[in-house]
Amino acid sequence: FQPKLLAGKRVLLTAGPTFEAIDPVRGITNLSSGKMGYAISRAAYEAGAQVTLVSGPVSLPCPVGVRRIAVTSALQMHATVHQQVAAHDVFIAVAAVADYRPAQVVEQKIKKRLQASPPSIELVANPDILGEVAALPSPPLCVGFAAESENLSEYAESKRRSKKIPLIVGNLIQDGFSGDCNTLILFDDDGAHPLPPAPKIDLARQLVARVALLLEKV
Ligand code: C5P
């Protein structure tokens, strides 16, 4: 029997990649299966929460009981999160948001011109969705993710400090990408809490338990 750790709580999540269009058939994206964010959505629902999942393009079914809002670009994800956030107690940002998008979306397919020099794409920065939510006057409890290829503890802790969030989840890219298992380390004010290799749904349940604990403290 799983105690309903998040009964009566409303949890907003982002998951998956974003896709930043260059023209009607091309774009810039990040590699992200969405599996970790979807597993956390499921675990939060199982724990009794009302769950809203803002999802970039992935090929996963919506977890039972979860309200999913599908988006494509970082700007759409940003707008949707801002529309939704006031009604939520917790915000868990799992999405691999593209840091940059093309400054202009070209309306017609860009044609290949072999004689000319290759085209260049001007990029502009996307908003930091999690950073902005954490800076709201009365933010929900904010949880971030740090996917790193090295120096996990150092990078995750510095991200937690710079975004001013109580909890960040670190994982090494080589451990979890696109698979069903992962290895996580949770970093909060009490220090580092390693979660040994396990299926993503088990890790998601452990993360939900830590979120419930932090909610008790606020
Ligand atoms: O270092 P970075 O800003 O990419 O931090 C990763 C964390 O911030 C993740 O939780 C990710 O979902 C979130 N993020 C975001 N908006 C961005 C970039 C990252 O919400 N534009």
UniProtKB/TrEMBL annotation:
<keyword id="KW-0285">Flavoprotein</keyword>
<dbReference type="GO" id="GO:0010181">
    <property type="term" value="F:FMN binding"/>
</dbReference>
<keyword id="KW-0436">Ligase</keyword>
<comment type="pathway">
    <text>Cofactor biosynthesis; coenzyme A biosynthesis; CoA from (R)-pantothenate: step 2/5.</text>
</comment>
<feature type="binding site">
    <location>
        <position position="159"/>
    </location>
    <ligand>
        <name>CTP</name>
    </ligand>
</feature>
<dbReference type="GO" id="GO:0071513">
    <property type="term" value="C:phosphopantothenoylcysteine decarboxylase complex"/>
</dbReference>
<dbReference type="GO" id="GO:0004633">
    <property type="term" value="F:phosphopantothenoylcysteine decarboxylase activity"/>
</dbReference>
<feature type="binding site">
    <location>
        <begin position="127"/>
        <end position="130"/>
    </location>
    <ligand>
        <name>CTP</name>
    </ligand>
</feature>
<feature type="region of interest" description="Phosphopantothenate--cysteine ligase">
    <location>
        <begin position="11"/>
        <end position="218"/>
    </location>
</feature>
<protein>
    <recommendedName>
        <fullName>Coenzyme A biosynthesis bifunctional protein CoaBC</fullName>
        <ecNumber>4.1.1.36</ecNumber>
        <ecNumber>6.3.2.5</ecNumber>
    </recommendedName>
</protein>
<feature type="binding site">
    <location>
        <position position="163"/>
    </location>
    <ligand>
        <name>CTP</name>
    </ligand>
</feature>
<dbReference type="GO" id="GO:0046872">
    <property type="term" value="F:metal ion binding"/>
</dbReference>
<keyword id="KW-0288">FMN</keyword>
<comment type="similarity">
    <text>In the C-terminal section; belongs to the PPC synthetase family.</text>
</comment>
<keyword id="KW-0460">Magnesium</keyword>
<comment type="function">
    <text>Catalyzes two steps in the biosynthesis of coenzyme A. In the first step cysteine is conjugated to 4'-phosphopantothenate to form 4-phosphopantothenoylcysteine, in the latter compound is decarboxylated to form 4'-phosphopantotheine.</text>
</comment>
<dbReference type="GO" id="GO:0004632">
    <property type="term" value="F:phosphopantothenate--cysteine ligase activity"/>
</dbReference>
<feature type="binding site">
    <location>
        <position position="99"/>
    </location>
    <ligand>
        <name>CTP</name>
    </ligand>
</feature>
<dbReference type="GO" id="GO:0015937">
    <property type="term" value="P:coenzyme A biosynthetic process"/>
</dbReference>
<keyword id="KW-0456">Lyase</keyword>
<dbReference type="GO" id="GO:0015941">
    <property type="term" value="P:pantothenate catabolic process"/>
</dbReference>
<keyword id="KW-0210">Decarboxylase</keyword>
<feature type="binding site">
    <location>
        <position position="145"/>
    </location>
    <ligand>
        <name>CTP</name>
    </ligand>
</feature>
<keyword id="KW-0479">Metal-binding</keyword>
<comment type="similarity">
    <text>In the N-terminal section; belongs to the HFCD (homo-oligomeric flavin containing Cys decarboxylase) superfamily.</text>
</comment>
<keyword id="KW-0511">Multifunctional enzyme</keyword>
<feature type="binding site">
    <location>
        <position position="109"/>
    </location>
    <ligand>
        <name>CTP</name>
    </ligand>
</feature>
<feature type="domain" description="DNA/pantothenate metabolism flavoprotein C-terminal">
    <location>
        <begin position="6"/>
        <end position="212"/>
    </location>
</feature>
<comment type="pathway">
    <text>Cofactor biosynthesis; coenzyme A biosynthesis; CoA from (R)-pantothenate: step 3/5.</text>
</comment>
<comment type="function">
    <text>Catalyzes two sequential steps in the biosynthesis of coenzyme A. In the first step cysteine is conjugated to 4'-phosphopantothenate to form 4-phosphopantothenoylcysteine. In the second step the latter compound is decarboxylated to form 4'-phosphopantotheine.</text>
</comment>
